[in-house]
Amino acid sequence: MDAIRVRGGKPLTGRVRVSGAKNAALPILCSTLLSDGESRLRNVPKLRDMVTTAALLKFLGRPVDMDAPIFTVGAATNVKPEAPYELVKQMRASVLVLGPLVARYGRAKVSLPGGCAIGARPIDQHLKGLEAMGCKIEVEKGYVICEAPAGGRLIGAEIRFDMPTVTGTENVLMAATLAKGRTTLVNCAKEPEIEELARVLNKMGARVDGAGTEVIHVQGVEPGALEPFDHAIMPDRIEAGTYMCAAAAVEGGDVIVEGARFEDLEALIRTMQSAGVLIDAADGGIRVRRQGPLRCVDFSTEPHPGFPTDMQAQLLAILCLAEGECHISETIFENRFMHVPELVRMGANITLKGHTAHLKGVKQLYGASVMATDLRASASLVIAGLMADDETEVRRVYHIDRGYEMIEQKFQGLGADVARVRGAEA
Ligand code: EPU
User: Fold this and answer.
1) What gap in Å lies between CA 150 and CA 46, rounded to an integer?
2) Is the CB of 171 under 6 A from ligand 1?
3) Atom 7, ligand 1: which residue's CA is nearest?
4) Angle separating helix axes 237-247 and 312-319, nearest 10 degrees
5) Which element (helix H / strand E) includes 370?
6) Given a cut of 80, is residue 350 above it in pLDDT?
7) 95 close to ligand 1 (CB < 6 Angstrom)
8) Which of 5, 147, 209, 414 has the most Cβ atoms closer than 10 angstroms to its Cβ?
9) Residue 167 half-sphere exposure, CB side, CA atoms within 13 Å?
């Protein structure tokens, strides 16, 4: 199993370019199922999750030509609307084929994704939306089976989500594009990736209005009416935020994160500025500088436009050496502090109480062997390694490879002493 070895202490300097957004590419790849022709996606990040999605689409009858960063999803031939456990278990977001399949083919059988390291992550809201559009839903032997009403077409409805859910909003939104009549989705998630999906759906000929706000209206079009598309994926705001935190990890850091956009990162930027990080617009991106000591700052994760749960671990890591004390609350997922015990092994002073981490800044972190447990936790451990004395080995980095393209090369380009160790101990 691969590990990442980090020798800490050096400030990062230079420019780094962010890749296409994983969490936009995933639903957009699934949206190709809504149209029968060949679609093309550009700026697709080179990540394991993209390969898993391509394998799933191929299994469903849509072969994908992967010539990164361009993916071409072939025209539909004999689509079999069934997603097996072997593929879904590798990636929860596979559930995003459910809405498009039942909308286009009148039926879908998709394995339930099961538990996840960061929380239970049920899909009841996805199912509630599809049910409101007339689907008959059964759960059988670990699979969810959705049948559209007689005639095989979903029916527009008014659906209120119990909480803003990103993939839930995306799944139901995609389904609504082909429903008969008008659908109104209320209490939607407002993440930029949902706006990006809606842009693509509208390019295909769908009639979506309001994506990025709490209420989305969709006027359904006839199945068969959506056209294939050609689209370049937006930059990954979480990858951008991760390099922004890394730039601020060590005093003297001065990095331009190319492709980072202020409008996608407002809550993170505000919080980092309160901690003393200097952040300015730069040609093609955002410049991040760290000139003096950082200050501890309280923050709490919230649905967009609040502070993103996907950035909690990385910011927490850089605050380990900040002056003072702070409280960091995680309100989205119930088990998203798994990086904390590892950071404590590196010398951080953090106590967990329920959904809140109480952090007291320390003077020094020490290099250690630590274990990556999920994607963002792993990134936070690499950042902690940049701040620690001596050498840190982050094990089980297959988690990182799900969401960060060429992470060690990008860090090396900023002058960090980071290397991949092939076949390290698990
Ligand atoms: N929830 C339910 N029922 C549902 C759906 C969600 O109870 O049917 C709950 C979840 O358990 C959670 C909250 O609602 O407590 C929000 O979850 P959400 O559905 O928004 O999460 P998601 O769609 O499964 C996406 C991203 C995650 C990101 C979250 C929150 C993708 C593919 N994944 O997950 O990204 O953390 O939104 O912003 O878009 C990552 O990239 O590392 C990652 C985990």
Assistant:
1) 41
2) no
3) 122
4) 0
5) strand 369-371
6) yes
7) no
8) 414
9) 20
Whether the CB of 333 sits within 6 Å of ligand 1: yes
| Residue given tokens 């209005």 in the structure block | 209
Ligand 1 pocket test: pick from 163, 171, 187, 402 the residue with the most ligand atoms within 8 Å of its Cβ. 163
Is 320 an active-site residue? no
Cα 234 from Cα 23, distance rounded (Å): 10
CA distance 54 to 173: 21
Which tens digit of pLDDT belongs to each residue from 399-425?
A: 899 899 999 999 999 999 999 998 877
**Rounded Cα–Cα distance for residues 45 and 238 (Å):** 13
pLDDT bracket for residue 115 (50, 70, 90): low
pLDDT of residue 123: 94
Residue 101 φ/ψ, nearest 5 degrees: -65, -45
Cβ atoms within 10 Å of 77's Cβ, excluding its own: 9
3-state helix, strand, coil in the chain (%, to 5): 35, 25, 40
pLDDT tens-digit map of 267-301:
999 999 999 999 999 989 999 999 999 999 999 99
Q: Rounded to an integer, what distance in angstroms lies between the CA atom of residue 322 and that of residue 270?
A: 16
Q: Which residues contact 92 (CB under 8 A, 6 or more apart)?
A: 113, 116, 121, 167
* Residue whose tokens read 């020094």: 364
Chain centroid offset of residue 270 CA: 21
Average per-residue pLDDT in the chain? 96
Question: Which two tokens mark 305?
Answer: 């436009």
Pocket flag, ligand 1, residue 32 (CB < 6 Å): no
In this predicted structure, the answer to whether residue 383 has a pLDDT above a threshold of 80 is: yes
Cβ partners under 8 Å of residue 353, min gap 6: none
Q: Assess whether the C-beta atom of 411 lies below 6 angstroms from ligand 1.
A: no
What is the CA angle 101-153-221, rounded to 5? 90
